[in-house]
Amino acid sequence: TLDEATTQLRVVLTPVDDPPVKDGTVPIQEMDEDGPSMAFNLLEVVSDPEGEDLDIRIDGEQSGTQSPIRYSIQGSQLTLTPLPNAHGATVLQILVSDGENPSLMVELPVVVNPVDDPVVINASQWTNLSFPEDTTFTLPLGPLAYDVDGDGLAWTLEGNIDSFQSSLVNGTLE
What we know:
Blueprint: E1 21-22, E2 29-32, E3 38-41, E4 46-47, E5 55-58, E6 63-66, E7 69-74, E8 77-82, E9 88-97, E10 104-113, E11 119-121, E12 139-140, E13 145-147, E14 168-169, E15 172-173
Parallel strand pairs: 2-10
Antiparallel strand pairs: 1-4, 3-8, 5-9, 6-7, 7-8, 9-10, 11-13, 12-15, 14-15
């Protein structure tokens, strides 16, 4: 004869809080110098297995500057704004936390493309010029206008210039 017995076994599954996970590749965020802001939803690349709200920070902050951009985080939305007259590349190191587990680091590459900025005219330096006849007059051109990109400027004289001689030497009109 065969001895048999029936019993019940109770199994209790204790849930654990799983850390946030990276779900995909973070695309390069590309924008133009002096251009509009752009937004990126970080939930496109990170999630919490339990669906908990995530705390997202860069350098421990939810807003700040990392040249050549300014960033701000609201919820899962990261807004990037190019700094005025700045271009280049950076990688934002974003820490994503569910409040219980170690933070997940996500790197977000950002490229700000350069644009050719217009020449800036310093109107306060433009005044009427007068000097005695048969004398030499020197006019430094640098204070009159500049290029924020540091490009050299080309100057031309226009109007009734037959009555005087001029030369351009090292950014100075003589």
